[in-house]
Specification:
single chain, alpha+beta, Butyryl-Coa Dehydrogenase, subunit A, domain 1, Butyryl-CoA Dehydrogenase, subunit A, domain 2, 12 helices
């Protein structure tokens, strides 16, 4: 990452992270913080400069997201669909539709998520649908895990239309759109990952975004890497809190190994372990991010053969990184409590948030499936899965 880009957003990240612990305790949604990120230009950072962006490469974006997550991982995750949408637009074929979507993003629009559903639908099936009536096209359905949509201006809704699955671009303030803050997970509680309902929402033909199965894309790896950037940021935040907690601590145990916690070699060892865990998460994130840089360059160059190779390599890198970053963040968040006594449990400190948030991110994709997937690839040559769906078996 260029030093100028990191410097530009450091003060903004510090500002939006200032009340992160209070928001965690109060479960206060970060509307004002999202607006500050928008106003700073962060939501446009990957756009070309002629569209008001910084033309940031994937590796630069993921490092920025990790630094944002260091302050508040909710903010990094809730922008997952926004940056994924921007990435898809940037890699789309030139044309009027791409120009229209770029203009929306350049105008500051934030994009949300309406992909996943709860209920009896089988794996890969949807109940959300676009149908035609006397007045034209209408969208009906109910989505859950709508991460970021509470804060978004636009949302791409995955729906059935004439026997095919398509995306439908909808304004979140359109009549018939309802957004609910009913996400009840114990971590990442301020990401707006609840229900979005669409009832007779009117859409135009131009709002339909066909899914091109043959189009070369690293989209699956991209969305996974956003979660890993958030987890790596959590590990950094754990280290920050460990150092701050120990540095301010004066009480110690009668059987401690040093006169103060900061001089206690046992405590020093724990802090060193946390630092190494954070380092390993950062290293894996950086390696996987560079793989996305390579796939992005190949896709934009229009070199299909090189792009296929690079996309596959990115999939392997991100899968491998998941098996490093997430355990490192979880272990760091647990080890944090080895540096002090009962005062570390004070609810006002909310140090438990690190583990809860890391565990929530890790639960998106069961690690055992990822390890098996990688092992199967190495042993049999089976491709690594980067896209998948969920539903009733």
């Amino acid at each position: 990452m260029t030093a100028a880009l990191a410097t530009r957003f450091r003060s903004v990240f510090d500002e939006v992270g200032r009340d992160a612990v209070a928001r965690e305790r109060e479960r206060r949604l970060p509307y004002a913080e999202v607006e500050l990120l928008r106003a700073s230009g962060f939501t446009r950072v990957t756009l070309p400069r002629e569209f008001g962006g910084e033309d940031a490469a994937p590796s630069e974006l993921f490092e920025l997201l990790a630094e944002l997550a260091r302050r508040d991982p909710n903010l990094a995750q809730l922008l997952r669909s926004h940056f994924s949408f921007a990435d898809r637009v940037l890699h789309a074929p030139p044309g009027a539709r791409r120009d229209r979507l770029l203009a929306l993003l350049a105008g500051g629009a934030i994009h949300g998520n309406a992909t996943f559903e709860r209920g009896p639908a089988s794996v890969g099936a949807l109940t959300t649908a676009v149908t035609r009536d006397a007045a034209g096209l209408r969208l009906d359905g109910r989505k859950f895990y709508s991460t970021g949509t509470l804060f978004a201006d636009l949302v791409s809704v995955l729906a059935e239309y004439e026997g095919e699955q398509i995306g439908v671009l909808v304004r979140t303030d359109a009549p018939g759109v309802e957004r609910f803050d009913d996400w009840s997970g114990f971590g990442q509680r301020m990401t707006g990952s609840g229900t979005t309902v669409f009832t007779g929402v009117r859409v135009e033909e131009d709002d339909l975004l066909p899914r091109d199965a043959g189009r070369l894309s690293h989209g699956g790896s991209f969305v996974q890497l956003v979660l890993l950037a958030a987890a790596a940021g959590i590990a950094r935040g754990v280290l920050d809190d460990a150092v701050a907690y120990v540095g301010a601590r004066t009480r110690t145990f009668s059987h401690a190994s040093g006169p103060t916690p900061g001089e206690d070699p046992i405590v020093q060892e724990v802090v060193g372990d946390v630092a190494a865990l954070s380092f390993s998460a950062d290293a894996a994130l950086a390696a996987a991010s560079r793989a996305l840089d390579a796939s992005s360059a190949a896709i934009r160059a229009g070199d299909d053969e090189r792009a296929r190779t690079a996309i596959a390599a990115a999939g392997r890198a991100v899968t491998s990184a998941q098996l490093v970053v997430l355990p490192a963040a979880l272990q760091a968040a647990t080890s944090l409590f080895e540096v002090g006594g009962a005062s570390a449990l004070d609810a006002d400190r909310a140090l438990d948030r690190h583990w809860r948030n890391a565990r929530t991110l890790a639960s998106h994709n069961p690690a055992r499936y990822k390890a098996r997937d990688l092992g199967a690839h190495l042993l049999t040559g089976a491709p690594v899965a980067t896209w998948w769906s969920v539903g009733e078996a």
